[in-house]
Design goal:
The protein is an alpha+beta fold. It is 25% helix and 27% strand. Helix 1 packs across helix 6 and helix 2 crosses helix 3.
């Protein structure tokens, strides 16, 4: 019998169905479907609001997920743990200085936005600086990787590529013409930073988005995803890592 229950913040989508299938058809619970949990191990997929009293162990507590989904909290932890990230600020006066220096700046309407929602780009000194909860510099990276980590071990790496010729170079997601090559090699600097970023947030698992500048081998973390999209091979890698870490 499976030792796991998966709690998914966004329902039993394809990623969770893949993961469940590789974990002996583990139950996928949501806020609307709470099973009899007994002493099973909870895999918490992106639920920062979860308040269940768990009798056994967790993969990712709600408190740690809350750090990851809020850019301000996450970047403060990155800085505290010396994890390289883009320059950021909450101060519009600093943004003005950046623009005068020729920098491109991301404006996030909300510090907890996801999938590129609520982002505006500024790239000219005459730009009006709108209100944002969080501002960050663009680093003009060459490549962007997603480093999947479970309890300090890199289990898989994806690399973003242009699926569409006019893909947005600043917001690299599926809606803007990007997709992933799965299970690729990556520079050691990228993999090390991915592990350190997940560890800085005290997360048992996560998928760190890392920008890499080839000329200097510099790597920067943009965020750690607490509910990463999983293909079938990626879900298999997660399931194996979860099982190995609990001796199952």
């Amino acid at each position: 019998m499976t030792k796991f229950v998966i709690y998914s913040y966004n329902g039993a989508g394809a990623s969770m169905r893949y993961l469940s299938s590789y974990l002996d058809n583990a139950v996928i619970a949501t806020r609307h479907t709470i099973p009899d949990l007994h002493n099973k191990i909870l895999i918490n997929y992106g639920a920062s609001y979860l308040t269940l009293s768990w009798k056994s162990s967790w993969f990712n507590s709600p408190t740690d997920i809350a750090k990851a989904i809020n850019k301000i909290k996450a970047f403060r932890f990155f800085e505290q743990h010396d994890v390289a990230c883009p320059p950021w600020t909450l101060n519009s006066s600093i943004v003005k200085n950046w623009l005068e220096q020729g920098k491109t700046v991301y404006v996030r309407e909300t510090a907890s936005g996801s999938e590129g929602h609520g982002i505006r780009l500024l790239n000219h000194p005459m730009n009006t600086i709108p209100y944002g909860e969080f501002y960050a510099q663009a680093i003009n990276h060459d490549d962007e990787y997603r480093v999947h980590v479970v309890r300090g071990k890199v289990i898989s790496v994806g690399k973003k590529y242009k699926k569409e010729p006019n893909a947005n170079p600043y917001i690299r997601n599926m809606d803007n013409g990007w997709a992933f090559h799965l299970h690729v090699s990556a520079p050691e600097s990228v993999k090390k930073l991915g592990k350190r970023a997940v560890n800085a947030l005290n997360m048992d698992f996560g998928a760190a988005d890392i920008g890499h500048i080839r000329a200097t081998d510099a790597a920067f973390v943009f965020e750690v995803n607490s509910a990463p999209t999983m293909s079938s091979p990626t879900a298999s890698a997660y399931a194996e890592a979860f099982s190995d870490s609990v001796g199952h």
